[in-house]
Amino acid sequence: MKSREQEYREIFMSEALEYYDAMSRHISELEKNPEDTAALNELFRLMHNLKSNARAMGYNQIGEVSHEMETIFGLIRDKEKSFAGTVVPVLFTGVDTLGAMIRAVGEEAEMPPTDDLLANLDRLVQGEEPILITAESDTDEEAGRKLELSDLVYIQIKKLDHLLNLVGELIIDRDRIMTLGREIGNPALQAAASHLFRITDELQYSVMDARLVNVGSLFNKFPRVVRDVAASEQKEVTLRLEGQDIQIDRNILQIITDALLHLVRNAIAHGIETPQERQKANKIPAGRLTLSAQTERDDVLIRVADDGRGIDVESVRRKAIERGLVRADVAANLDANAVRAFLFEPGFSMAKEVTEISGRGVGLDVVKLAIDSLGGQLRVESELGQGTVFTLVLPTSIAVKGALLFELEERSYAIPLMHTDSVVAMEPEELHVVGGTLMARIQEENVPIVNLKTLLHSGDGPLPAAIHEELVGRQRIIIVDYNNRKLGLIVDRFLRQQDIVIKPVSKPLDTIDLFGGVTLLGSGHVCLVLDVPALTRLFLAKRP
Predict the structure, then answer these.
(1) CA-to-CA separations, 260 to 129, 218, 291, 293, in angstroms, rounded
(2) Closest by alpha carbon to 245, among 263, 219, 210, 224?
(3) Which residues are CB-contacts of 146 (< 8 A; sequence separation ≥ 6)?
(4) Would you tell me how many other CB atoms lie within 10 Å of the CB of residue 104?
(5) In sequence order, what are the beta bridge partners of 411?
(6) pLDDT single digits (tens) 13-30
(7) Exposed, middle or buried by CB within 10 Å (0-12, 13-18, 19+), for 69?
(8) What is the per-residue pLDDT for 191?
(9) What are residue 302's DSSP bridge partners?
(10) What's phi and psi for 487, nearest 5 deg?
(11) Residue 31, H or E segment
């Protein structure tokens, strides 16, 4: 397995070799036509990019030569120097030397000497005549310059998407073949199915690995965002980035881009106080904002944390009552997590005034919808006066997901593991009716329980009040977790845990929000995948 350093070096080499080829082409064009502004501008840009990349990787010699070359091309661009006379061979030598240095990085060899070249480049900058030299270039025994191609290729993401979809189809057929092998009892078929399982497993992870990108590719865009938003809000904010080398599926990163932008803007607009407010609260004038990423089992956790004023739970409670989201008597008994969940309701905003950043009715519900579409979770922790942390819990892949399979009325269903907290079996006497709702004490927490069959068949009306006497025998319950709310679903039978490929629901079922997709099991039967966020919202809307 490659180390991160090897991966970064390969990426640097791929771009640097492209830069070198483009430099060679453009400097040849410039020699033919010294007035070619486009070629000159491109040479300046290429030198600047190579300098930045080389310095970031610690290749300081390449960075130094690129910097001097960039300076001279800048002088030529500004008409302070002409691409003529002794300037031409020195710059050609510089390009050739850069090529040799880039190849040395790829071969992990010693860098060619650059003292004479740098001295000549410095003379040109100072307006002095250079001492002409030539670069040592790689030659064969007789074809001249050595030509090299990069070991990396660039692939359009839609091609990888198509490839992953094909892998998903292959996994479905693999599971069917394995089931068939067990049913028939043919040893040869079972052996072939086992081999197919290993091959498709490796193929799946190889394709998923090819789609991974560093979180830093998104994080590194935020320093400018933070600077601009802080200036607009008249606040001082220091941004800290952590875990930029954590890798995640590129499509997932694309989907959460707007959500992360909203959370950062929200943290600055609502969370972090003005310098004057912070000083009154005995805080340093500049607020601290941290964007971090880490892995946890099969998930990637991205956090947006600030040291601002925190979320005033009582203010949110009052706002939720004003908006008619909850009755006052019910709101009074809600814990802090349940109250903070109102922040994710459509249009909910605590902004006192409309600005370019906040108060326009576009709230955290937009963020929640983006995370829900990925089968992820959004958690919020806050301490009044100390700050707030939003945590995005994201899957590593959106095509293949871990799921818990279960049976209800002799039909198979699946629930994504992302929203599955635990499974329990309880006797009827362990369940109690409180306010018309069945409740259970699970892990020191009171969790509402509902028969999934009743919930799915409830139609337009409210759920019937729970009747404890209807329960017979041990009840198999799946505890799901969404938006800091837990809900127990009574099912007929637990089946197994397995990776599934989720496909969109076809008509007319696509109009039913409760189903997030379908998958095909090894038996050949279609299995509906339940949408936990939709189930939770339905229960809350229908509870007595």
Answers:
(1) 54, 9, 9, 12
(2) 219
(3) 103, 137, 138, 139, 140
(4) 16
(5) 408
(6) 878 888 888 898 899 889
(7) buried
(8) 85
(9) 293, 392
(10) -145, 135
(11) helix 4-32
Tell me: pLDDT of 544 over 70. no
Cα–Cα distance for residue pair 221/199, rounded to 1 Å: 38
Is CATH 1.20.120.160 the classification given to domain 4-126?
yes
Show the CA angle centred on residue 24, arms to residues 22 and 25, nearest 5°.
Answer: 65
Stretch (H or E) spanning 250: helix 250-266
Single out the residue of 388, 392, 350, 349 nearest to residue 367, CA to CA: 392
- Alpha carbon 542 to its chain centroid, in Å, reads 34
User: Is residue 493 a contact partner of residue 508, using CB atoms and an 8 Å limit?
Assistant: no
Structure tokens at 535: 């189930």
**Residue 373 reports pLDDT greater than 90:** no
Q: Residue 2: what pLDDT?
A: 55
Q: For residues 374 and 251, give the distance between their C-alpha atoms in angstroms, rounded to a whole number.
A: 10
Could you give the CA distance from residue 57 to residue 102 in angstroms, rounded to a whole number? Answer: 12
CA–CA distance, 469 with 330 (Å, rounded to integer): 26
Tokens read off for 517: 């997709």
Q: What is the pLDDT of residues 242-291, one digit of tens each?
A: 998 888 888 888 888 888 999 999 899 889 999 999 999 999 999 999 99
Both tokens of 437, joined, read 């709702």
Q: What is the mean pLDDT of residues 422-441?
A: 85
Q: How far is residue 476's CA from residue 478's CA, in Å, rounded to a whole number?
A: 7
Q: What's the longest Cα–Cα distance across the chain?
A: 100
Handedness of CA 122, 125, 128, 129 (dihedral sign): positive
Q: What is the mean pLDDT of residues 310-338?
A: 85
pTM over 0.70: no
Of the CATH numbers 1.10.287, 1.10.3470, 3.30.70, 1.10.10, which one belongs to the domain with range 157-210? 1.10.287
CB–CB of 438/432 below 8 Å? Answer: yes
Write the burial class of residue 341 (CB in 10 Å: 0-12 exposed, 13-18 middle, 19+ buried).
Answer: buried
Backbone angles phi, psi at 390, to 5 degrees: -100, 130
Of 286, 514, 510, 336, nearest in space to 415 by CA: 514
What are the helix (H) ranges across 154-236? 157-184, 187-210, 216-219, 222-233
> What percentage of the chain carries pLDDT values higher than 90?
26
- Write out the two tokens for 493: 């039978």
Fold (topology level) of 213-395: Heat Shock Protein 90 (3.30.565)
Residue 33 backbone dihedrals phi, psi, to 5 degrees: -140, 90
Res 50: pLDDT: 92
Cis peptide before 112 (omega within 30 of 0): no
Which contiguous run of DSSP H or E holds residue 452?
A: helix 452-456
Q: Where are the domains of the chain?
A: 4-126, 157-210, 213-395, 400-542
DSSP H or E segment with residue 125? helix 115-126
CATH topology of domain 400-542: OB fold (Dihydrolipoamide Acetyltransferase, E2P) (2.40.50)
What is the Cα 126 distance to its own chain's centre? 48
Going from the C-alpha of 233 to that of each of 37, 226, 281, 286, 363, the distances in angstroms are: 41, 10, 19, 13, 18
